[in-house]
Amino acid sequence: MANERTNLTICNMALGYIAKTRITSLTDSTEEARQCNLYYNHLRQQLLTGYNWGFAKRISALSLLSDTTMFGYDYVYAYPTSCLAIRFIYDEAGAETKEYQKEKYEVFTNNSGVQCIACNLEDAYVEYTYDIIDADRFSVLFAEALTRCLASTIAVPLCGSDGVAGTQYQLYQQSLIDAKVISAQQKEAEPHFPDDFISARM
């Protein structure tokens, strides 16, 4: 697709915002490419983690770990793959009564180095923010916020200007607010269990 959004296009937009030369790849031997490659994924994950974005929402059935226990909890489950932030733990009954937000859980690492979730729900589900790498799946306003955030971050090393960085940071803050407002407007009032969102137990 001619208008497909990629990590490269986001980086080049950020470079354009601070009047720097575009790159052809994040592996280019230029300082522009090195700075973009250094910060892009970190900032992407930071922005994804910081808010419950609708486009990055996943709902999965949790996989029980029968060989792991946690004091004070009845059940221990495997942490979801590519999960950046857990938003809610609940079961179907909890979702129906809107009590899922109150469910207590704890994330920990067991003796085998496996990241786990402990809670008191049998057959639990998790709503979480997924680590989306495909930039074309970002909302337009999230992509703009990420672009401005990257521009503000790389402005000082590439331009040597706190003023340019400050301007881009202000634009990032406003873009982030706009993105959150639109995302919040598109959310449903309560979680549900659509077949295409629930993955097999992991």
Q: Your description of this structure?
A:
The protein has 202 residues and is α+β, with helices and mostly antiparallel strands. The chain folds into two domains: 7-51 and 133-185, no CATH class; 56-132, no CATH class. 40% of the residues lie in helices and 17% in strands. Strands 3-6-1-7 form a four-stranded mixed beta sheet. A hairpin with a 5-residue loop joins strand 4 (105-109) and strand 5. Helix 1 crosses helix 4 and helix 2 packs across helix 4 (140-159). The relative contact order is 0.20.
Summary of the model, kept short:
With 202 residues, the protein is an alpha+beta fold. It has 5 helices and 7 strands, in the order ααβββαβββααβ.
What is this structure's SSE topology?
Elements: H1 7-17, H2 31-49, E1 57-61, E2 75-78, E3 83-90, H3 92-97, E4 105-109, E5 115-119, E6 125-130, H4 140-159, H5 162-185, E7 198-199
Parallel strand pairs: 1-7
Antiparallel strand pairs: 1-6, 2-5, 3-6, 4-5
What is the oligomer described by this structure?
single chain
Q: Given the helix and strand composition, which structural class is it?
A: alpha+beta
What's the order of the H and E elements?
Answer: HHEEEHEEEHHE
Gross morphology is elongated
Instruction: Describe the largest sheet.
Output: 4 strands, mixed
Radius of gyration: 20 Å
Strand content: 15-25%
Strand order of the largest sheet: 3-6-1-7
Low-confidence parts: 194-202
Give the averaged pLDDT, no decimals. Answer: 89
Query: Treating each run of at least 4 consecutive H or I residues as one helix, how many helices?
Result: 5
Helix content: 25-40%
Q: How many domains make up the 3D coordinates?
A: 2
Give the N-terminus to C-terminus distance in angstroms: 33 Å
Q: Count every beta strand, where a strand is a DSSP E run of 2 or more residues.
A: 7
